[in-house]
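Suppose you are handed a protein chain with no further information: no name, no annotation, nothing but its sequence. What can you learn? This example shows the usual starting point.
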Amino acid sequence: MDAPVGAFTFMLHSHLPYARQAGMWPHGEEWVHEAIAETYVPLLNALFDLREEGVPFRLTIGITPVLAEQLADALIVEHFIAYAAERAANAAKDVARFDHAGDATMRDLAKFYHHWYARVLTSFRDRYGSDLLGAFRTLQDAGLIEIGTSAATHGYLPLLSRDSSIHGQLHTGVDAYTRHFGRAPQAVWLPECAYRPAILESEDGQPVRRPGLESFLAEEGLLVFFSETHTVEGGQPVGMAVPGTIGPYGMIARRYASSITPPAPDRQMAPGTSLHPYWVGDAPGQVAVLARHERTGQQVWSAAFGYPGDFAYREFHRKDSESGLQYWRVSGAGVDLGRKEPYDPGNAAAQVASHADHYVKLIEEQLRDYHARTGNFGSITASYDTELFGHWWFEGVDWLKAVLRGLAGRRTVQVSTARQIVEQHPPDQVLSLPESSWGAGGGHYTWLNDDTNWMWPLIHASEQRMEDSAARFPNADGMRRDVLNQSARELLLLQSSDWPFLVTTEQAKDYAVERFQEHLDRFNQLVALAESDAFTDEDKVYLSALHERDNPFPTIDYRNWAPRQGRAGIAPVAAAG
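A reasonable first move is to predict its three-dimensional structure. Written in structure tokens, the prediction is:
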């Protein structure tokens, strides 16, 4: 019997910004409804089907805390059920419309969608009891998946100016994870794969060494994070896919020259290899990094040869003018949207089987080759946005399911989770990583550029103001404590990396600016209210309304924003009364 020569894990990163009661189509809460219908429920169906078949699959899936809070929210659940029922009804209307027009092909496609949405709704309510987090937790408790966490609202950590904010983002995220999943997380997705090593800055005229991000992860007991390929291997960054700007499968690469802090002289500097985990910088033996494997990643993301661009697969961008459903396929290279041909689910399914088989062989070949060249046990981490599968790439969930089933039959490949890779095949080297991200050009450009420069001084001023408030009121209670806790929520929501991202990519620029300004205004009003000597009935009504509108992280504690510049850890605060 062949022994495994390497390990493989899918790392699926699930994230949406806070959109609860923050608008509907085309921007707002419907983002969440679409992702539930097109990605999260189909993915759970695939994984539960594999479990019932007895397939020994493993994968790692990150669920950002702000997404988890929304998936668990009763209002989101209520609105999603209405959304899915409406989509099924729209498909039923299309059946009658196309039948009346004598178009049997489109009529049958409408029937396909009617059944598809009906199954999604039935699965959501009956198979998972309208509790998607509970379903993911069941799979984790069974040892089939590992659920990772992230910063609370996906804040872009390297550009935050106060270590209290980095701590607040991560600690709040870990707390939310523990509350939802009943255990402490081990894997963490740094938002946008954005990493920053230790740096020297001036604080009140004195040099202060700010710890590398791994120190904050170690404080939270987190074992492993993920990076882009070039962060570990060096070389030219490939940029990132930006759905909606140049298509869901295209790649952009804009050079960005960031200021990189030199590594300590006794540490190995990148390049390393993405087929091996490493201990990181300031936390050897505590925090490891797994880099995205370039070859398997490009097999999906590449505009030239990536699977999702296959001509048989469903076209994302063309939607029916009446129902909004997508009835066409990619059809060909450069085919105008108006000339797309009707989608054929049967032909697409055949391509899924072929592409899954190809990917399984590719993984095995890559691991065999690495083992033959080095004699070492390799590990491949294939990192993707979860929403690619099902939402952007309609057939993607079926492809994942087929790949996991195929890998289960390959004795040379150990299908693992991120934690298992680090624990069972621990790193034997410490790597000093450069400042980096998986954004355009490999640096901070996507989030810090001429279009977004105005945002960061406002974020930084808010960070300092939050820290000052935590220092001024170290043990607030009653109304003042509630106001400061809501201030911390608004700061977290203000810091979301989604707002500068959407401004840069112009996918929803006006919406992003509006949301950013809303959270900034709310934060400033709340901090001013916390500093007042007395609270009026009007203040209480305002706070109550705002807490109902922006309600994630119910156990948040503003004291986690106490000053800590230059320190990853300080003595923990007592639980808030």
